[in-house]
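Notes to self after the Tuesday call (sharing in case useful).
The group wants a holo model before anyone commits to mutagenesis around the pocket. I volunteered. Ligand is cobalamin. Logging inputs and output together so the record is complete.
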Amino acid sequence: MSNNTLVDEGKPTLDELRERLWQPVIDGDAVRALSLVRAACAPDTREPGRLRDIAERVLLDVIAPTQERVGVEWAANTITVAQEHAATAVNERCVSALADTCADALPATSRGRVLVACVDGEWHALPARLVAEVLRLRGWHVDYLGAQVPTEHLVSHLHHTGAEAVLLSSSIPTHLPIAHAAISACQAAGVPVLAGGAAFGEGGRYARAMKAKWAPDAPGAAEALDEGLGRPSVTAARLPDLDLPHLNDQEYTMVRRTRRQLVKQALADVEEGFPAMRDYSDYQRERTVEDIHHIVAYLATALYVNDVALFTTFMVWTAGILEARGVPRHSLFPALDSLLNQLSDFPRATAVLSGARSALTIPGPGRPA
Ligand code: B12
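Result:
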């Protein structure tokens, strides 16, 4: 993954640096973490171009995988939510320290001005920040707006700065309908959009369906900008069903509109179908309500992009998260059965829910695997 040869003699390799950084990050020890990152990117006598290369490698081959590992440990329930927050805060400080260290080594001439932002509702700012810092290191003037930027403010900032491209980040698929609205609003303002982040699916397939360009990572974003994103077409201002004609069946709209009722009924059915829930504490009950909300939100999103796999992937992921916390996967079946029941008149919703039931290897209603 990493190009270890980029690091100078006498300094740790990128692999070693990643290993050394892990403990301070997971301990929430910013002082030790910062000193490691600063030492790796000390400006000392290095030529600016080389310093920029090393900084980019540290961002992408050390800090990014460390952050991903935080996610893996959280999912496996080996670290707490609080530890995950503390670790993320340390990593964010490492990115800032690295950006400060390189401030005087940035290219003198700007390649152009771009805006990097997360879609409204999206809290995962670190991926966007990594993209922003890499583009700065490569000579772009970057307006970085961070997490959850409301679309109207995004567009008005574009008018204000005259940025030539918008780089839109999203990690959580349930933000895709909002991302779609942001993409068409920016394009309608005459500005091309490059999308990225885990929400946009394997190979960026949802970004492409929404008529945005896509890149897998920060270097890919730099390459796409170098090649030029082109001007948005005259049909840029459009309703979502122009890109996604299946929306005409109104299944997405219906599920979204009635989501509160769907959740309420599903909760009642879960209580009946999963008797262990009767002994749940208030905290456990609240988490269950939250889980059902997520299930309905992912169902709606799968209908929006017309992809059963989006929902199935989420349900399998949820089952893994629950199992790591001692909750059996069959606790998910009553919620799925309830939604299947409630949505039996909707063929696409039924296909999505049935797809997830098969993926979770459910032999049949009420007969947990
Ligand atoms: C840190 C973190 C958080 C922090 C975010 C803080 C912050 N300042 O960023 C907090 C605590 C807020 C959080 C909240 C939640 N999180 Co969270 N989070 C993470 C975690 C651990 C790390 C994210 C990260 O920074 N990754 C590192 C970067 C480098 O990876 P990356 O996303 O792949 O980014 C690269 C590319 O995608 C690409 N890229 C990204 N953006 C863009 C943009 C453009 C234009 C381009 C070209 C490229 C590009 O380039 C990047 C750099 O190379 C991930 C786990 C993980 N594996 O990522 C979970 C994760 C994303 N979170 C998850 C979840 C479920 C949530 C919550 C729903 C939890 C909850 N129940 O409340 C909320 C949602 C909040 C919201 N509304 O957005 C799940 C998502 C699962 C799913 N299937 O949807 C994950 C995967 C956790 C897991 N291990 O399963 N989270």
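Two things stood out.
The longest strand covers residues 141-149.
Confidence is low (pLDDT under 50) at residues 363-369.
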